Amino acid sequence: EIQSIEEQLKARIPVSNYEFRLHPYYIIKTALTRSEIIRPGAEPTGLLYRNIEPIYNKSDIIFVQGKTKWRMQGRNVREGEQPLKITERFIGQKALELYSEAQTEPYILKAVDGKLPVNEFGNVELFTGVPEGCAHINEQGAWRACKALGVEYKHAVTGFELKKGRNVAKKEGIIILKEHKKDVLKEWKIMKHFLFTKKLTKN
């Protein structure tokens, strides 16, 4: 009797972590990547790797990642959810808590009652675009016009960059309420002209 390719693959147990990562049907916990876990409650296949480690079905793998990465994809971890996995990071850094998509909900940012939608660090995230009711001004120094007019502004975070081994927020421009955009740009144009004229006079 000729075995199908599927039957042949299921009959052959991988002999290393590398082979488990490539195998279409089987996986062991020690072969998982940092962003993978076995679905809670998943039952092992009944097979053992080296007669010690339980083998699971690859279909029971769940993808997990941190809160910030979920936010960058337009999703927010629901309040009260517990991390499915906690990974160690560099010495001196806080351990990273990882969550699955099932623990998240759509992350929609918008200005509410005249307040800018800031994160826990007091910045506004633009991972999925400019929040509703807000305006992004990506001009260096435009915050000066906000100060002059008494308009609230926050730094705009567009992503992250690696500095000295740590992920640091990448800030580009400022966020203000949309209703103030015209006035701020007008004031900034005047201020830039004044600053430029002052510089020429000095020279």
Short description:
The protein is an alpha+beta fold and 203 residues long. The protein has helices at 5-11, 17-22, 67-72, 143-149, 181-202, and strands at residues 26-27, 36-38, 48-49, 53-54, 56-57, 61-65, 75-77, 85-87, 96-100, 104-106, 124-125, 134-137, 154-163, 166-177.
Secondary structure tally: strands: 14
Mean pLDDT, all residues = 90
Distance between the termini: 93 Å
Structure classification: alpha+beta
Number of discrete helical segments: 5
| SSE series | HHEEEEEEHEEEEEEHEEH
Largest sheet, in brief, is:
4 strands, antiparallel
Beta-strand percent range: 25-35%
Low-confidence stretches: none
Rg (C-alpha, Å): 26 Å
Could you state the oligomeric state of the chains shown? Answer: single chain
What general outline do the C-alpha atoms trace? elongated
Q: Which features does this protein show?
A:
203 residues, four-stranded antiparallel beta sheet, 5 helices, 14 strands, alpha+beta, four-stranded mixed beta sheet, 29% strand
Structure characterization notes:
This protein has 203 residues and is an alpha+beta fold. The chain has 5 helices and 14 strands. It has helices at 5-11, 17-22, 67-72, 143-149, 181-202; strands at 26-27, 36-38, 48-49, 53-54, 56-57, 61-65, 75-77, 85-87, 96-100, 104-106, 124-125, 134-137, 154-163, 166-177. The strands form 5 sheets. It has a 4-stranded antiparallel β-sheet. Helix 4 (143-149) crosses helix 5. It is elongated. The termini are far apart. The mean pLDDT is 90.
